[in-house]
Automatic annotation (TrEMBL):
Keyword Cell membrane appears in the UniProt entry: no
Species name: Holdemania massiliensis
Main location: cytoplasm
Keyword annotations: Cytoplasm, Methyltransferase, RNA-binding, rRNA processing, S-adenosyl-L-methionine, Transferase
GO cellular component, one term: cytoplasm
Uppermost EC category: transferase
Reaction(s) catalysed (UniProt annotation): cytidine(967) in 16S rRNA + S-adenosyl-L-methionine = 5-methylcytidine(967) in 16S rRNA + S-adenosyl-L-homocysteine + H(+)
Family to which this protein belongs: Belongs to the class I-like SAM-binding methyltransferase superfamily. RsmB/NOP family.
Domain SAM-dependent MTase RsmB/NOP-type span(s) in chain numbering: 157-434
UniProt name for this protein: 16S rRNA (cytosine(967)-C(5))-methyltransferase
GO biological process, one term: regulation of DNA-templated transcription
Superkingdom field: Bacteria
An MF annotation (GO) of this entry: rRNA methyltransferase activity
Amino acid sequence: MKTSTDCETAVVDSIRSKGAGRMNNTRKTAWQGLHAVINEGQYASLWLRQHGLALSEEEKRWVTAVLYGVLRHREPLRWQWRDLVKRIPEAKVAVLLDMSVYQLFYLDKGTDYAVVNEAVKMCPQPMKGLVNAVLRQVLRRGQRPLPQPDSIENLALVTSHPQWLLNLWKAHYGEDKMRSIALADLEEAAVSVRINPLKLKAKELALRPDWTLQPNGWTITTTGNPVADPWLGEGKIVIQDRSSQQVALWLDPQPGEAVFDACSAPGTKTTQLAAMMDNQGSILACDLHPHRLKLVEEAAQRVGASIIETRMLDAACADQQLAGQQFDRVLLDVPCSGLGVLRHKPEILLRLTPEALDEIVGLQAEILNHCAPLCRVGGTLVYSTCTLNRKENDKQTAAFLAQHPDFELQDEKTFFPDEGDQDGFYIAKMIRRR
């Protein structure tokens, strides 16, 4: 049974109306993107940014839907055809089969044979027969029912989450929460937007009936498409998830204060800090890589934030590089495993291992230990991640506090993706008492 929407079908029909070749090229682009992400380790958002320039808006929407749809449902898609082959074909051909099944059962309504024929045309000569035979068998059989997710093994198949991760979440948050998180990760993430009061005035917002300001005073909802809205390019609005917006709100910087943002790229939270400070005071925004600092500078220029100074710095030895300096507020939005943003970045699960989690916990501890001295007595330190792993979150905070009795935990919270349309995040707010 297909699950395509009228909107998705309309996109396909519109592209096809411009010529069969146009639709074929769009399918080939999607296949190339999936191969780059799944088999070559690239990131979906970066690949789309680099290769989407030659696409129309409709084509880009379709390619994006296929790219993220296959990444989210890769195990259920392979379940539809892997019993029909003696061995899994080469990686790029396997991805083509996954993509074709996604089109057949999830996306392209009424185009079954076009999907099969185009897949056969695109694949290398030696594999055309196999691709044709497998996809026609898939069509004849119809959508193969998935097993009930009544066990860790079956839930891993249904949600494309590795069993080790489900077991970790079960141990950390309980079985019900583990299931709820994994199922929520299958949902397409909504585009969340916040205002930029440095450029957007209240009277302008009042003239837009399609925009609604939420009670927190920052998040706005819309009936339109914020990505295509002129306000985005003008810096009047910023794309930022609801949970991510909370990080700056917890830090609560005031106009005139000195703020240290240790891991600032790409600058979304940094520019929110500047807006909260009414562009008064100073923000030292740091990152280890110069190309990422450029993103911060571009974001600051776009939103009109002039109090942001960027500097290349290793946060794991920040106290040595900034010896003698202290700040009113310190933000440590540290590198993490990203398990809270799988709706936006499902490709994370392709590469993540339990060993990688342990490595990043050590890095986070170093950043905490070496940035803490930069917080003045009476100042605020916020530690945050976009992951769901207690070793990186509350246990990391607890270990830090045990070693630093001069800091006191004021509050901490885990934001879950199944509790409203938001990413998974963890935030801890600490005060330096002496």
